[in-house]
Amino acid sequence: MLGLKTVHHIAIICSDYERSKTFYTEVLGCTIVLETFRAERNSYKLDLAINGTYIIELFSFPGPPARPSRPEACGLRHLAFSVDNIENSIAYLSGKGITCEPVRIDTLTNKRFTFFADPDGLPLELYEG
Hints:
The chain is α/β, with parallel strands linked by helices. It is globular, with a radius of gyration of 16 Å. The strands form two sheets. It has a four-stranded mixed sheet, with helices on one face. A four-stranded mixed sheet has the order 5-8-7-6, with no helix packed on it. The chain folds into two domains: 1-65, 2,3-Dihydroxybiphenyl 1,2-Dioxygenase, domain 1 (Roll), CATH 3.10.180; 66-129, 2,3-Dihydroxybiphenyl 1,2-Dioxygenase, domain 1 (Roll). The chain is built from two helices and eight strands. A hairpin with a 6-residue loop joins β6 (104-105) and β7 (112-117).
């Protein structure tokens, strides 16, 4: 048996470190666990937590290549966050200048969800419930 227990972290490479750091901390409300600058790579690694749980590693690398990032692109589809009230969350993001797609209904669970994007166009989802 492989013995998987949980998802340990999600790694994200950004094109503009300060812009993405601001987005993930000030807009999404992630807290900084540890920030490291690796001079040999000219790269930052920012460990972030959601509600006290370590979850995201934000990396900066000089000149990262672009990647398709629509929710239906082949590969890792998106990163989803659970919220209690989707309207309140959409209103909050709207107040920060972030546009969400129209709310959809998951036909399997009957739960509501929407997509928005991080500063590099990475698809992020809010899932109510």
